[in-house]
UniProtKB/TrEMBL annotation, chain A:
Protein family (similarity comment): Belongs to the ParA family. MinD subfamily.
One Pfam family from the record: AAA_31
Domain of life where this protein originates: Bacteria
Gene: minD
Keywords in alphabetical order: ATP-binding, Cell cycle, Cell division, Nucleotide-binding, Septation
Described purpose of this protein according to its UniProt entry: ATPase required for the correct placement of the division site. Cell division inhibitors MinC and MinD act in concert to form an inhibitor capable of blocking formation of the polar Z ring septums. Rapidly oscillates between the poles of the cell to destabilize FtsZ filaments that have formed before they mature into polar Z rings.
NCBIfam families xref list: minD_bact
InterPro entries xrefs: AAA_dom, MinD, MinD_FleN, P-loop_NTPase, ParA/MinD_ATPase
Quaternary context: Interacts with MinC and FtsZ.
Span of domain AAA: 3-151
PANTHER family: SEPTUM SITE-DETERMINING PROTEIN MIND HOMOLOG, CHLOROPLASTIC, SEPTUM SITE-DETERMINING PROTEIN MIND HOMOLOG, CHLOROPLASTIC-RELATED
Species this protein is from: Colwellia marinimaniae
Protein's name in the database: Septum site-determining protein MinD
Automatic annotation (TrEMBL), chain B:
Name by which UniProt lists this protein: Cell division topological specificity factor
GO biological process, one term: cell division
Protein family per UniProt: Belongs to the MinE family.
Lineage, broadest ranks: Bacteria, Pseudomonadati, Pseudomonadota, Gammaproteobacteria, Alteromonadales
The keyword Cell cycle is assigned to this record: yes
């Protein structure tokens, strides 16, 4: 059975789409059949981050309305053949999605893929609720910053009460914390919440820590998910996330500031 | 100077902005979690009153009755009553 994973956060701009793209591509590179779904109806962007924006013909809402088949709407990734993208529609109203029709599409996709990654829109409106409703697992993307952490906690409440698993009294959604835009140097200086701080507050298991990195902007500029930039710290941190999702135990990297010189180490703590 | 900075910074450690952020978050998150799960104060009394009225007409055991106040979308409250009715009637 396919693993349905929602990438969610509550707050916007924390890295949901960047993470969805990196994780989707990373899993596909490991040989798994993966579909990435953009749930941000009206504001699609996953296509741009994946670099397939010129190839969008049909979208999620077309499939729901029966105007296109799944096969027509799915865009096969040019880099990895086991990866497909189902783009959000750009113009239609977001009420197009409901539990029944989304459930049907996910059912059909579940027969074709091992992983279904749902890129959630920001907020706690209908679109975000649809993205998380059928999830088996949730990657809660959080920045080490007060408003993002608070919103993540809000989303954790939704996962526990508004999902299909909650409504049917099934085993709860498996939650993962993905901390993004992490600056070890600022943490060391007491200017940024540390990994432990955020773990303390949200109390969910840590899946990964992605350092603040110039590679992320370069990746989205080029439409090449950052996991392909294997020399970059962010790319390597996402690779670790993939390995952990696949059940491996990988030590966390990029948590400490660059090594200081001997003098500052002696005198600067 | 670095030595002096070192001692000054040590003292400041207690009031870094990160530790203030953590403290504020712990308080607000705990508060919001509470209000997420909390039932209003009147609910136990309301439950008792409803049971009294119901029992005037039908036989209701404590197990076959449940009451729940749900908050949907943050602005819509739904009061949900669940009463299991048994075959035999008793109007006493």
């Amino acid at each position: 059975m396919a693993r349905i994973i929602v990438v969610t956060s509550g707050k916007g701009g924390v890295g949901k789409t960047t993470s969805s793209a990196a994780i989707g591509l990373g899993l596909a590179l490991k040989g798994h059949k993966v579909v990435l779904i953009d749930f941000d109806i009206g504001l699609r962007n996953l296509d741009l981050i994946m670099g397939c924006e010129r190839r969008v013909v049909y979208d999620f809402v077309n499939v729901i309305n029966g105007e296109a088949t799944l096969n027509q709407a799915l865009i096969k990734d040019k880099r990895v053949s086991s990866l497909s993208i189902l783009p959000a529609s750009q113009t239609r109203d977001k009420d197009a999605l409901n539990k029944e029709n989304v459930g049907k599409v996910l059912d059909d996709l579940g027969k074709l893929f091992d992983f279904i990654i749902c890129d959630s829109p920001a907020g706690i409106e209908a679109g975000a609720m649809m993205a998380l409703y059928y999830a088996d697992e949730a990657i809660v993307t959080t920045n080490p910053e007060v408003s993002s952490v608070r919103d993540s906690d809000r989303i954790l409440g939704m996962l526990a009460s508004r999902s299909r698993r909650a409504e049917l009294g099934l085993e709860p959604i498996k939650e993962h914390l993905l901390l993004t835009r992490y600056c070890p140097k600022r943490v060391a200086e007491g200017e940024m919440l540390s990994v432990e701080d955020v773990e303390d507050i949200l109390s969910i298991p840590l899946l990964g820590v992605i350092p603040e990195s110039q590679a992320v902007l370069k990746a989205s500029n080029a439409g090449e998910p950052v996991i392909l930039d294997t020399d970059s710290d962010a790319g390597q941190a996402y690779q670790d996330v993939i390995d952990r999702l696949l059940g491996e135990t990988i030590e966390f990297r990029f948590l400490l500031a660059e090594k200081k010189g001997i003098f500052s180490r002696m005198f600067g703590g | 100077m670095a030595l002096l900075d070192y001692f000054l910074r040590k003292k400041e450690k207690q009031v870094t902005t990160a530790s203030r952020a953590k403290e504020r978050l712990q308080i607000i998150v705990a508060h919001e979690r509470n209000s997420r799960n909390k039932q209003p104060d009147y609910l136990p009394q309301l439950t008792a009153d409803i049971l009294v009225v119901l029992r005037k007409y039908i036989k209701v055991s404590d197990e076959s009755f449940s009451i729940k106040l749900d908050n949907k979308d943050g602005d819509l409250n739904v009061l949900e009553l669940n009463i299991e009715l048994h075959d035999e009637h008793d109007s006493s």
